[in-house]
Amino acid sequence: MLSRVANSLYWMVRYIERADNLARLIEVNGQLLLDHERLDSERLRAFWKPIILSTGDETLFSDLYSEAGSAEVIRFLTDDRKNPSSIVSSIAQARENARMVRDQLSEELWEELNSLYLFINSRDGELLLSADPTRYYETIRRATFTFHGIAAASIARNEAWEFMDLGRHLERADKTTRFLDITSFLPEEEVPANGTATFHWTAILRSCGALGAFRASHQGEPDPDSVVDFLIFSREFPRSVRFCVDRIDRNLHRISGAPRGTYSNDAERVAGRLLSELSYGSTEEVLESGLHQFLDQTQEKFNSIGEELFRTYVLLQDANNARPPIPAANMSAVVAWQMAQQQQ
Amino acid sequence: MFEAYEADGFFDEMFAGNGEVRSHYRALLSRFSAFPPEDFEARRASCDQHFLRQGVTFNVYHDDRGTERIFPFDPVPRVIPADEWDHLEAGLTQRIIALNLFLHDIYHEQHILRDGIIPRFYIEEAKHYRPEFRGMKVPKDIYIHICGSDLIRGGDGTYYVLEDNGRCPSGASYLLENRNALKRAFPSLFESLGVRSVDAYPRELLEMLHHVSPHREGEPVCVLLTPGCYNSAYFEHCYLAREMGIEIVEGRDLVVMDDFVYMRTTKGLVRVDVIYRRIDDDFLDPTVFRKDSVLGVPGIMRAYQAGNVALANAVGTGVADDKVIYYFVPKIIEYYLGQDPILPNVPTYLASEESDRKYILENLKDLVVKAANESGGYGMLMGPSASSEEIAKFKDKIIEDPRNFIAQPVVSLSRSPTWCEGNMEGRHIDLRPYIIYGNDVKIVPGGLTRVALRKGSLVVNSSQGGGSKDTWVLK
Fold first, then answer.
1. Pairing state of beta strands B268-271 and B260-265?
2. Min CA distance, A3 vs chain B (Å)?
3. Phi, psi of B372 (to 5 degrees)
4. How far does B473 lie from chain A, in Å, by closest CA?
5. Which residues on A lie below 8 Å from B293 (Cβ)?
6. Chain A within 8 Å of B69 (Cβ-Cβ)?
7. What are the residues whose beta carbons fall under 8 Å from the beta carbon of A164, sequence distance 6 or more?
8. Do B376 and A313 touch (CB under 8 A)?
9. A216, A237 contact by CB (below 8 A)
10. What angle do CA B181, B182, B186 make, to 5 degrees?
11. Measured distance between the N- and C-terminal CA atoms of chain B, rounded to whole angstroms
C-alpha cells in the first residue's frame, strides 16, 4: 500500500473517532449542567474550564473567546471551524482524508462519511444543533458508529484495515485519558472533602460510553478507584486504555509481521512497553504517584507511537531520495498548482 | 410531456423538421410520455441527490465554501443510431491514427514540414511543442493514447470535429456515472431498447496501459498520476484508478532512482512501469520543466527517455491540439493516410494568415474567436453576444499575437430535448467520445453529451454552467 494512503486511512479514522468522543463529551456535560442549581458565570467558567484544559486547546480557546460560558465552550468544541479539533473540523478532515484515498474505500463507507459531512455543513444541521442539540450529537455519534460498522463489514483485513484500526484505538485511548484528566482540573470547591463527587466520575464514565459496562462489573457508586481501574486497566471494555493499547500493539505487529513480544521499529517498542506497564500496573500505584502525571505521560507515549509510525511507514527514511512532507507554509502554492493543471 | 416542445429553428436530435419523431427516438418517446411530470421530476432530483452523496463532483475554483459541485445531469438521454455511430467511429479512428503519425513525424524526420504542408513556424512556435524530445522513441510509437475529440452537429445534421483534446482529456467518469444514474432512475428503460453498454471503458484503458508497458517479467505496474485533491478533476482521477484497480499517486509518492520510477509503499519501494498522467507537461519534472513545482517527480523525464517508464499521454502531445494545428488536421489525414477526412472540421480562419486575419478583424461580431491553447471555455470571444468593448479588446489581442488565435463562424449546435424545471425544452449539445489508442483503436459507444442548460446558450462547459446527458448508441 502507498505510504500516503496508509497515512490518510489512519487519520481518517482518528478524526472520526475524535468527533464521536467530542460529541459524547459535550452532550454528557451539557446534561450534567442541567442537574445543577443555577450557576453564576463564575461557577459556569469553573465547570467548563477543566473540559477545555483536558482537550489541550486552552490557548486557542482564549484567543478566540473572551467569555467561557456554556455557549462559547459548546460552540468552540462543536462547530467552530477555527478550532481544528472541533467536531465539525474533525469530520471535515476525516472526509478530506477519505477523499484522498477514495479508491481504497467501499462505496458505502465513503457515502456514509460524505453524507455526514454534507449534513454538518447543511442548513438542516445548523437548525438541529440550535433546536435540539441532543439529537444533533446523537446523529453524529450514530453516523460514526455506522461508519465503523460499515468499515468492519466491508474492508478486507489487510494492511489498510490495520492502519485504520490502529488510528481508531490510538485516538480512543488518548480521549479516555483526557476525559479522566478532567478531574485533575476540577476546582477545589467542586471536590467535596470526602472526595466522592460521584456525579463527576459518573459523567466521565458516560463520556466514555462506559456507564452500563461499569455497572455490570462494579457494585456501588463510581469512585476514583473503581473508575480509574475500569477505564485504565479493564481487559474487556473496548474504551479502556489497556484494551486499546493491546489492540494497537497487535495492529503494529500485524503490519510489520514481527511476532508480538518482540519489536522491529520504535512504534512497536513504545507500544509493547506501555502494554506491559498496563498489564502489570495497578490503580493504587497510579493514584499514589498522581493520576494527572500518569495520564500526561501516557499521552506522550501515544504521541510517540504516532510519530514513530509515521517515520517508519510514511517517511521511509531508508529510501535514498525520499522527499520530506511539504511544509504547511507552502501548501497554498501547492493548491494553486494543483488547480492550474488543465483538464481539458 | 412533449406536447409543447418546440423543435423549430435548429437541427433537433429527436424531431425531424416536420415535427415527426425520428425513428431511433420512437421507443424512448413512448416510454417517457407515460411518465407524469411530477414523477419525472422526482427521478431527476433523486439522481442529483445520488451524485451529491456519492461525491460525483468537480471542484469549483474561487469559491470559498463548498468547493465541489455536481455536474448537472439531464435525465433525457441523447440517442445515436448504429449507422450514425459507425460513421463517427470510422472518422475518429482515422483522425487518431493520423494525429499519432503526425506527432511521430514532428518529433522525428519532419517530412510534413519539409514538404511544406504545414509552415514550419506553426510547429516551432506552438506552445506545447517540445523540441528537446526530438528523436526520442516512445513506446509503440504512440503519442496520444487517450483522446477526447469534441463533436458538434450543425444545422443540416452534419457532424463536425470542433477540437481534439490530446493532453488530459477529462469527463469519462461522468459518462460512466451518467449511465449508472439513468439505470437507477429508469430501470425499465434499458430492457428492450438495445442500448450498447459503456462498461468496457476502464478495462480498455487498462489494456492500453499494459500494451505500452516497457517489457519485463510479470504484470506491469500502472499508476494514475494526479496533481492532487484540489484539482478540478480529482473525482475522476480517483474513479478511474479504482475502476482499473490501479494506484492513484501524487508526485510525492514517486521517486526516481537509477532512471527507474518507484512508488513509496509501506513495504518499501515498488517499481512503476506505466503512468497515466493527469498533470501537465510543465509540472511533470522540476529538473526539466518548471523548477518551482513540487507536483511532479524529479528525474522522471530521464526514466522516460531511458525507456524505463511509459507515459500516457506522451510528453509534447499538446502540439496536436493547438487550435492552429487543428486547422491542418484534414491536410494531415490526406498527407499521412492518402484518404479524404471522414469527419470535417468546422470552417476555420487563422489569424496569422494575412487574408484570414483581415476577414476576422472585419467580421468579429459574427465569429467565435478562440485562443490556441485554452480549454474549458476560457480565452473565447462569442462575437454575436459580445459587447463592443470586448470586441475591441480581442481585436487588439489578435493584432498583437496573431499566432495565438483562430476564428470560426458560429455553428448553431444541434438541440436535444432537455428537462428544464418541469418542461421539455430544446437545448444545445455537443458530444465528446473517448478514443483509446493501444493495440488497436477502441471507442466506447457513446461518449459524454454535454448540454448548455441556459436557454439559447451555446456554451456547454461544466465551468460555464453546462450539464450532461447519458448518450445511447443503439445496437
1. antiparallel
2. 5
3. -65, -30
4. 24
5. 337
6. no
7. A9, A10, A12, A13, A151, A155
8. no
9. no
10. 125
11. 26
Q: Is B250 at the interface with chain A, CB within 8 A? A: yes
What phi and psi, each to the nearest 5 degrees, are found at residue A168?
-65, -45
* Chain B contact set for A100 (CB, 8 A): 229
Measured CA distances, B5 to B15, B20, B44, B185, B430 (Å): 10, 12, 19, 23, 20
Q: Which amino acid is at B81?
A: P
Select from B169, B230, B238 the Cβ nearest to the Cβ of A339. B230
Can you read off the three cell numbers belonging to residue B175?
459518462
What is the residue type of B235?
A: F
The residue type of B450 is: R
Whole-angstrom Cα Rg for chain B: 23
The verdict on A338 touching B (C-beta cutoff 8 Å) is yes
The whole-model pTM stands at: 0.91
Domain ranges of chain A: 1-154, 156-344
| CA-wise closest residue to A161 among A22, A169, B267, A317 | A169
Of A2, A115, A330, the CB nearest to B263: A2
Residuewise pLDDT in 10s, chain A (344 residues):
999 999 999 999 999 999 999 999 998 888 877 776 666 777 788 888 888 888 888 899 999 999 888 889 999 999 999 999 999 999 999 999 999 899 889 999 999 999 999 999 999 999 999 999 999 999 999 999 999 999 999 999 999 999 999 999 999 999 999 999 988 887 766 666 555 578 888 989 999 999 999 999 988 889 889 999 999 999 999 999 999 999 999 999 999 999 999 999 999 999 999 999 999 999 999 999 999 999 999 999 999 999 999 999 988 755 544 555 566 667 788 888 888 888 88
Phi and psi at A273, nearest 5°, equal: -65, -45
Asked if A313 is an interface residue toward chain B (Cβ–Cβ < 8 A), one would say yes
3-state secondary structure of B457: coil
Q: Could you give the CA distance from residue B385 to residue B452 in angstroms, rounded to a whole number?
A: 15
Question: Going by C-beta distance under 8 Å and a sequence separation of 6 or more, which residues neighbour residue B278?
Answer: A341, A343, B168, B170, B224, B225, B226, B227, B231, B233, B237
Ramachandran assignment for A197, one of left (phi > 0), alpha (psi -120 to 50 degrees), beta (any other): left
